[in-house]
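Q: Entry one of two.
A:
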Amino acid sequence: MDLYEHQARRLFQEHGIPVPRAEVTDSPAEAREIARRLGGRAVVKAQVKTGGRGKAGGVRLAADPPTAELTARQILGMDIKGHTVGQVMLAQPVDIEAEFYVSYVLDRAAGRFLAIASAEGGMDIEEVAASRPESVARIHVDPVEGVTSAKAGEIADAAGLPAQTVDVLVRLWQVLVREDAVLVEVNPLVRTRQGQILALDGKVTLDDNARFRQARWGDESVAHDDPLEAAAAAKGLNYVKLDGEVGVIGNGAGLVMSTLDVVAGCGARPANFLDIGGGASARIMADGLSVILSDPAVKSVFVNVFGGITACDAVADGIVQALEAVELTKPLVVRLDGNNAARGRAILDGRAHPLVQQATTMDGAARRAAQLANTS
């Protein structure tokens, strides 16, 4: 579960990582008072669980309290990549001398954590890594040994970070371990002209499997900015909004992730994805299709199911029954494989819905879904 920036900075503070003074509100009038308490000037930042806030106009400097109120009024309610801004954080501006990037992320393939750090923070780290890979240090961390001062010094040296950041690197590791996180990131970590090290922005993703140990976040941590994500969550569906045009429904996280890659490889972008899990009852399919089709960005839908414990004929029955409950307005491409796949395809052939097409391979179905999305 992802945390908002203001929640991440709360964890940073609790673990001794310095951050600028800041307060959160959902009221423009209160934003004016917060700016006054911060000394007049304030950085007004949209609180949404997505990147690109600055480019979208969700991060702005207000020169005085009245401007802070006006700016908060303009940002609240904004749509940023499908996320509606419900709160803004007002932070005290700082005089920046240098910006750095630091993060720890779980590297499942290596069975270790990966420290990523760069002296070129404050911008899109993916672009930096692609254009100047030598400027981004990647060092694995043994989860048993953790990040000691010596290890933090190794990371800082490799990335070209000043020695002052070593203590932050150690404390950031403590955030990761003690808060059951799988990602902690600070971008930018800055050095002010007064020589102080501050975390200006942060991202924390907690491990859902350890949620029972992090009960303090309660319902707040699962709040959804996107109404479709909220609707899906209310129906017990695992749905994530993206920014493309092909709706994706699959069964199992691994298959769904592969489906996203294949769709992208076929020249289209996934608009969202929904994992129906190990079962695909008519109700689950109807709910899933309802959510996917409610996204106006969706031009076609790709249902990719590999039958294992759940047989494909049961999935096909679910799709047929869902078509009775949901008005299909966009083309639906279905790929069924695995347990009882032939029987499942026959069921869909028998239904003969004019907007439903079938393909026998994942690549073929992805190509067709991408083609339909790009030509509609």
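Q: Entry two of two.
A:
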Amino acid sequence: MSHATAEKAATAEPEPAAPKKKALSEGKKAERRLGWLLCAPAALTMVAVTGWPILYSLLLSMQKFDLKFPDRTEWVWFDNYVAVLSSPYWWNAVWVTVVLTVVTVAVELVLGMSLALIMHRALVGRGIVRTTTLIPYGIVTVVAAFSWRFAWTPGTGYLAEALGGDPVLTEKIPALMVVGLAEIWKTTPFMALLLMAGLALVPDDLLKAAAMDGASGWQRFIRITVPIMKPAILVALLFRTLDAFRIFDNLFVLTAGSQGTSSVSMLTYNNLIKGLNLGIGSTMSVLIFIMVAIIAFVFIKLFGTAAPGSDDGGKR
């Protein structure tokens, strides 16, 4: 060690010791053990119910398992993953799913926020406005999808006749646009409902004080309302993104996955249920599970620290 280094080490101030964790009393330890014991049956049941299907799908995904040829079952390890990830049909379904998810969730966030602001501030007919807005969300998705299908069927549909009678559901891009509109119409009320709950967190006194200081309506919305609503916005975006990524009902009824409009869920259904190919279908299911887990992880990492009362690490 050089003389300068030794002198620097001798004069450096010692680092503050980490605070010692307070020891729990015997009563607290007993309460904690009792809590674990009471939660254990429910926790074990949840692990068994959710864990076994995941594990079984993982095992099936590593086998060549076709119910039409059960005597040809064999272990192929990761060959199914190579087959799926090198298939253009899979990547087309991923593209369709991602585009529908991003576009519909973005539009629903804007429309949902607008509806939430209207329902939150409406002084006359508030109950009628809220009830009317939430009607589409109360309709069963398959029923709503059939209404959209009939509306866009040439000869019987008023929307198809209004736009010249072209069969839009038989072409890829127009069909995807109709599917996106059906998704937005159906689930925007759900987004508005969650955002309206977030608006209730914004104190009116704070908005009035900002208005008296000369802040415009847009400035109050961006600098006060949105930051306070971040937890509600996170929940709304996370729920809708995961839901939109698993889109199935509207595509099944409107296009049946024809003309390259299959989502990853529909492609998995076609292989697993219609094709009886348990190996390939389970492989797709595992890949969807991984993608959904990544989406949830990214959302929590990006927006988790926005929750009120959280520290810099996103912990309470």
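A: Comment on entry two: The mean pLDDT is 85. The chain is about 70% helix and 0% strand.
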